[in-house]
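Bumping with the actual sequence this time:
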Amino acid sequence: MIRLITSAAIALCMSTGATFAQNWTLDTDTSRLAFGSVKNGYIGEVHTFEGLTGTVSGDGEVSIDIPLAQINTNIDIRNERFGEFVFAGVPSATLTAAFDMDAVRSMRPGESAIMELDSVLSLLGNDVDVFAEVFVVRTSPRSVMVTTNDMVMMATDALGIDEGIDKLQELAGLDSITRVSPITVRFVFER
C-alpha cells in the first residue's frame, strides 16, 4: 500500500521546474483502498475505507491518512465492531514513504511505468514495512494515478489485529476468518 502511495507521489512530482517542487494532494473522491476477507472458508467479501486524505511534498515525502472509523464493510454492525474491536477506537492509520523523484521526472501525460516501492504503515502503534509493485500513470500535467500492479498480501498478525479478528469471529459465530488479506490501492494525486 505504501509503495503504491510512493509511486503516486513520484509520478505526481515528475514535472519540471517550479511545478516539480510543488505539493500534491490526494483526490479523496477518486482514490480507493480496498481489502478482502474470506469467512467460513468460502464466503469472500471486499471492504474499503472512505475519506482517504494525503499529500506528497515537493521533496518526495508521502503521507496518506487512512480513517479507520470510516471503514465500509457493507454491514453497519460489522463497521462498528471493526472500529471497536479490531481498531480499538483508534481513529486513523498512516502510510508514509520517501522516494527519489528523479525516477519519474521524465514521465509525460499518457506515459506509465511499473515501480517497486517500500513504505511503512503505522497502525495501532505498530510500524509495518510494506513492499509493493505499483503501476504509475501520468494522467495529465497536473495529475498522477498509482495503483497496485498486483495485490499486496498482509497478515493480521503482522498488523497486530489478530485478537480483534478473533473477537469478530466470535461475535458473528463464524468457523473461520482468513488471517491474510489481499489489498488493492488506487491513489490519484493532483497538483
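The C-alpha cells above came from a reply further down the thread. The radius of gyration is 17 Å.
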